């Protein structure tokens, strides 16, 4: 039988225990499979829902968010380069 809670402080939710975050050196590791070395940190602002969706996708794909963003930016830059080259040919 659970003893009764008779103090207000006993009913307040305890703060969640902090989990260990990924060290920067592990985030910026040299990933042989991806053949990329992440060495530059930056800040990206996302909506709460976009962040949640991105984080869930990263876990499902067994990647980290940095790798996903790196791949997206690389793709954008390649498409941009091709678009500029095509425009210069005309």
Describe the structure.
With 90 residues, this protein is mainly α. The protein is built from four helices and two strands. It has one domain. It has helices at residues 8-11, 24-27, 48-60, 65-89; strands spanning 30-31, 36-37. Strands 1-2 form a two-stranded antiparallel ribbon. It is elongated, with a radius of gyration of 22 Å. The model has no long low-confidence stretch (mean pLDDT 80).
Give the helices and strands, then pairings.
Layout: H1 8-11, H2 24-27, E1 30-31, E2 36-37, H3 48-60, H4 65-89
What is the mean pLDDT?
A: 80
Question: Which spans of ≥5 residues are poorly predicted at pLDDT below 50?
Answer: none
Structural class: mainly alpha
Number of domains: 1
Radius of gyration: 22 Å
Element order, helices and strands? HHEEHH
Describe, in short, the structure shown.
The chain has about 90 residues and is mainly alpha-helical.
What descriptive keywords fit this protein?
single chain; 90 residues; mainly alpha; two-stranded antiparallel sheet; 4 helices; elongated
